[in-house]
Amino acid sequence: MCKHYHPQTCDTPPEGLYAEGALTRRRFVTHGLGLLSAAATVPAFLMQAGDAMAADTTMRLSSVPGAADGRVLVVVQLSGGNDGLNTVVPIGDDAYAKARPGVGHKPGDVLDLPGVDGIGLHPSLGPIQEMVQAGLCGVVQGVGYPNPNRSHFASMDVWHTADLTGKGGRGWIGQSLETRIPQDSAGMDCLSIGNAAPLAALGKEQRPVSFAQADLFRFAARGQDASISTTYDAVNHTPGPEGHEDPLAFVQRTALDAQVASDRVRKAVAGKSKTKWPGNNLAKQLQMVARMIRADLPTRVYYVTLGGFDTHSNQKSNHQRLMKDFGSAMKAFYDELDATGDRSRVTSLAFSEFGRRVRQNASAGTDHGCAGPSFVFGDAVNPGLIGKHPSLTKLDKGDLKFGIDFRSIYTELLEGWLKLDPTVALGRRYPTAGILRAV
Amino acid sequence: MKPLPPRDFDAAAARHLLNRAGYGGTPAQLRQLAAMGLDAAVDHLVDYDDHPALPGPDLDADVIRKRTAEERQRISQAKKSGDQDHLDAVRKQQSQARRDDRKQFQSLQQWWLGRMAQTPRPLEERLTFFWHGHFASSQRSVRDSYLMYAQNAMLREHARGRFDAMVAAVVHDPAMLKYLNNDRNIAKRPNENLARELMELFTLGVGNYTEDDIKEVARALTGYGVDDNDFVLNKRRHDGGEKKILGQTGPFDGASVAALLAAHPACPRFIALKLYDYFVADVGDVYEKLSRRRAAAVDSLTAVLRKENLHIGRTLKHLFKSRHFYDDDVVGKKIKSPVQLLVGTVRSLGTPTREAKNVLPALTQMGQVPFLPPTVDGWDGGRAWINTSTLFVRQNYTTYLATGLDAKAKPKSNSKKRRKNKAKAATEPAYRPTTLLAHLSNPSPQAAADALIDHALGPHTPSARRVPLHDLANELLADGLADAPLARLIAAIAATPEYQLC
Q: Interface pTM (ipTM) of the complex?
């Protein structure tokens, strides 16, 4: 089996959307019958693994239609409303200095972008500047949506569900992953790091694997109470009822799948990194993700979060730290992926639920605004600035107007990168903003 | 529905009844229920008005409040004169109110969970949750914890009454009007959101009305809005003209539309199927997909609901007394919802509730948070509850409830932390599982395990599946029954696949 994504050698050419699904069903019928009695005790995931290897050694375990082989999307959520204007700075615009006499950057401090005049990066985004120069980062300007909502919760819901009413609902990632046929990755299609599963990752039945620490993604008694956990394993391996209809058989299969997933995840996360990592919170999460990617988990989407962007007061020092953490973590992530040979199969998106107001407030901070920049990373992205910087004078109630609908970014990532149908989650295809290179 | 012969109402049947009509009970409570006999037991559960009710939560109704005329004037002045400082102050005030509301919202959630765990009227809470999923509204967009509570109280009030009265109350409910944007439904520009869901999800189901019916129902609901915490009919925004709805013509308004929909021939089966899915079997909400046997059962329940004039309590009595309700393909075959799993563990196994702050994050991970249904269609239920992630969370939480064992605890935590944990554990109410076995005199480890398996997993649990638990009991209870080892045995029992079902 190929370890990594090499399009020329590994891909089985897809024969239409359902072709491989049909193949898998056929496999189930021919190979599956012999295993029928074991169905209740062997995790579905293991069966397919063994089966796939037996059937076709050139085909990856995770080779399913609707997801390009080995490709991974990493979503980095910057929670709290990142101040876009101080992140991607229109330093050449007089209106900027005027609106931000105390909170704004000084012209000499912002970092240049190759071939760009009047717009630069936050002084602490040196690592991002390097990534842009290396062709690994695209800075998408003025991202937002119509009738913006300035509530953290509602706007975050909008980004998570792609439903502009902000009423919640199902997530863009969860719903899109459900379009994959078959879903045979032991429930590991999406993995989020954090205590609560992000709404974005919830589909009708799709749930992400989610944990703050990999240690927690397991039966709690394991490692803490040997008697209970031995009994747990013994019960799960005791034959029970069989058949797909029986709810007990279903729960037991899931328990066995969960065990496999837990073992794989924890083993992966316990691996060693090849490069040096900074110690900040985002870096720690991405370090785990890099290890899981390297271990070739069948996970297609990873979700991580960095909080603290709600900078209503004393913004300068707080935001500086956040920018430093963000930049250094992303750079370290791609350095590691480069060292492990996985860089070409990982695209990342960093977003925040909104930007902040143009005018600083009375507490040396900024209040909730609307449009802001997003970042995309990886070999597959178009590096440099993407889209236009929103005008600082033609405002909507004191806020920047968006130029690129975030759903355009989703469309491109789903369809162009993950090879998933974007219309299920988004309702339709949005005109792309050119964030991906033709690959 | 064919009734269950009274003599067949044994301990196992009583256990099943309380699992489905409530959150289960201790062995002593189950014995009491069984001793009452079928009719009295069911009546006892359904006629819950006879039992005392627990108090409501302590809430500030004005945590989110309307601006006074004076305040509004001051703001518009500030906008005109460019008084940014005042506008900043208003924003600040607003975000403070939001923060207060979020805090109050959490105490509301805790209150409801606590009520479910303690109420002497378990069916009342089970039904209220049923309606919460049926007439779903979410704090996510209502963003007013008091209105969410008011809706909860309204659902509870009508929970076992007539469905038509419930529908009428729902179209006048402030949280619902906000949730489905009916506060923006005005004669000049009708908003169809509530009208559509009213027919599609609340009363009739797809295929029983036309797009024109939706438009006309939306007209009937124009001007139905919210003033501060109360329903208000804005007459100037209400379209009082004639409407043609489902073939009938008249000057319909919210109340008469509610009556019309509840009287529609499609309504009883729509509601019967939902009740069947909630109380009997995970069959989903598409009648056409039912097996012949399930369809026949839903048909008889529909007939009962119709005969009882959509009276929910009376209908449930028939259901809970029916032979079908106690069939082998019903008992122990339904996947517990997260709330049912947690509340049921506390109520049936008598575990402490442990630290309140842990429960909401756990429920979030399990996918069911009170007052936060994912969509207006409520929760999906059935198999959607269980996957590789949620199953661990479920098993870990029941383990935590039984033993206090925290998945987060590092096996080799530093001694200071451990001491702190120990101190905390000492202040928590201890778990006394020996009381669950008080009716047995000096049982062997295996007999103790069997009694607990019968209780927690059901007497139908086959002997092969019991073997690992017998082994554990022999190991843990070699020196006799004691609370600590029993709690560990119970944790293992609650971590079996069987325990996810009821």
A: 0.94
